[in-house]
Amino acid sequence: MPFSGLNTNKLQCSSTYELRGAPCHHTIAADKLAFIYALIAVLLWSTVATAFKITLEYMTPLQMVTAASVVSFAILSLVCVIQRKSHLLLLELRKMPLYYVLMGLINPLIYYLVLFQAYKLLPASEAQPLNYTWAIALSIMAALFLKQHIRRRDWVACALGYFGVLIIATRGDLFGLSFSNPWGVLLALISTFLWAGYWILNTRRNADSVVSLVLSFGLALPILIIASFVWSDWSNIPWQGWAAVSYVGLFEMGITFLFWLKAMKTATNTALISNLIFISPFISSGFTLRKSLSHSLFNDFIRRFFVLFVRRRAIINTIFTRRESQFR
Question: pLDDT of 120-145, one tens digit each?
Answer without folding.
Answer: 998 877 787 788 788 788 888 888 88
